[in-house]
Structures are given as C-alpha cells and as structure tokens.
Amino acid sequence: MTPPEIAEPGRAGNGHGVHSPAEFYVASDIKSKRHRRTKARITGIKKSIIEILEADNPQTVRQVYYALTVKGKIAKTETEYQRTVVRLLTSMRDRRNLWTSMPVYLEVWVEKDALAGVLLEESKVYDVPLMVAKGYSSITFLHTAAMAIQGKGKPAYVYHFGDLDPSGRDAARVIEVKLRRYAPGAEIHFECPAVTREQVEQWNLPTRPTKQTDTRAKKFGSATSVELDAIPARKLRELVRDVINRHVDQQKLEFLRTAEKSERELLTAWAATYRGSMR
Q: Fewer Cβ in 10 A, N or C end of the chain?
C-alpha cells in the first residue's frame, strides 16, 4: 500500500516543493525505546501514515512525523524522525518510484513558489521531486537536500528554473556550490534550463531593466533581466518534461503506472474494509 505524493526527506509541502514545515509543540509521555518494534506496530504506524496522507495530501516528511506524534504513534525525537518516519516513508514510496530502478536520480528546483503548480504538473507525472527554493535557501535545507542526494548512491541531475537576473543566477550558483560541498561523495550534474538568453531571443520574452543597486549587477553583465514568469506556462511545462525525458525509460514508466493503478485499487479496497471493521 503506497501513499501518494510523499515528499522526500527534508522536502516540503506544495507538491514536492520545499517550505518550512509548521511547528507543532506537543507534550508527549511516550519514551523513546531502543527495542525493535513488532510487525503489528509497524503495520499500525503505516496505516496511520496512510490515514494522515488521505486526510491531507501531499505533506512533507516532517509534517507526517509531527502528525504521528500528535496521534501518539511515535515519540517526538529526532531518532524517531530519522529511523522510523523517514525509513518507513522511503520504503513505502520506493515500491512505485520510477527512479529506484533507474541508474540516475533527478530533482527539479524552482525559484518561485507561485510557479510550483505549473512545474508540478509535469514533475508529478514522473514522480520527480519538485524543490521550491525561494531566493537563498537556508544552510539547514541545503544540507538536508544534499544528504538526500548523496544517500541515493547514484549520479544526480538537478535542474534549476529561475529568473535571469543577478540574484536569480547567484542563488542558483549558491545552491550548486553548497549541494556539492555538503555531498562531497555524490556525482551531481547541475543545470539551469530556464531562463536563458537564447529563450529570451527565440520566444521574444519581455525584459526589464536590471537593478543596478543589486551588488551582483556588475558581474551579471547585462542591461536587462527576465523573470521566469515571462515564459508561458505551456513552454515551462515542456521544458520540465524535456529534461525529465532525457533520463526516463518509457517501458519501465508504463510498467510502474500499471502497477500503481493496481496498488490504488488494492488501497481503496483495503480502506473500505478497514473503515467497515471500525464501525
């Protein structure tokens, strides 16, 4: 039984985007125990995860963790977050994840939260994490993202969509530098598919004067800037689809879609039986 739309560890909220998860401060008398949980207890936690995601989907891993603590299913400790929630969500997700059996790992990053929904229409189809990094991301977030990439143990392709202006280009540069720094053992390929100068000319995109007050303007070396929003939604989706299709095995994708449909039918049947038994 695979819950849909589970964000990767440390990822957040709109689709597969990244936001700071809401904090829940819950008093709990549950004590962290080192003994191995029974299979029945693990199954119970998985059922709770499914219920949480069915009630409000998608959610971040951290949000699912907090919801489980509120339900009293786990203790509110970092150990429970890492060893229980992250581990269970990863195992539940990997049953249908196209990229588990692929030789590479993909992530799509977008600079603007407002455009996450547009890009999500494509990234969601291929089960590719969509990361929303507004401006300059925090060290904590970038470190967590880097650890997740390194944990895949395979070449990672990161595609960053952002503004063509001094801050947008520098923010992308910082993301690339820090991902490499925090995941020194990972093979990371970093690319900015949009916005490019070629796209501005080819599609006649609207420009705006570059803010000369921006300390990065001199290095940017251009009189005009272009926002990611200037690219029509249809073309943005095409760009996302194109970079993903570079790495997708279409035969495996079709097989997993069929398997996912079967899993959804099984989950629906299980949910109906489970609810009926609770009456």
A: C
pLDDT tens-digit series, residues 151-205? 999 999 999 999 999 989 999 999 999 999 999 999 999 999 999 999 999 999 9
Its domain, for residue 148, covers 102-250
Q: Which two tokens stand for residue 130?
A: 């969509």
Please report whether residue 137 resides in a domain. yes
Residue 272 included in any domain: no
DSSP state of 36: P
Q: What's the pLDDT tens digit per position in 186-201?
A: 999 999 999 999 999 9
Q: Are residues 162 and 201 in the same domain?
A: yes
pTM of the full structure: 0.62
Q: In this structure, are 68 and 142 located in the same domain?
A: no
Cα–Cα distances in Å, from 259 out to 8, 47, 143, 249, 255? Answer: 21, 20, 34, 15, 6
Q: What is the CATH classification number for the domain harbouring 126?
A: 3.40.1360.10
User: Distances in Å between the alpha carbon of 265 and those of 1, 34, 47, 64, 70?
Assistant: 10, 36, 16, 23, 29
Count of structural domains within the chain: 2
Determine the distance from the C-alpha atom of residue 71 to the mean position of all C-alpha atoms in its chain, rounded to a whole number: 25
The CA angle 1-263-80, to the nearest 5 degrees, is: 20
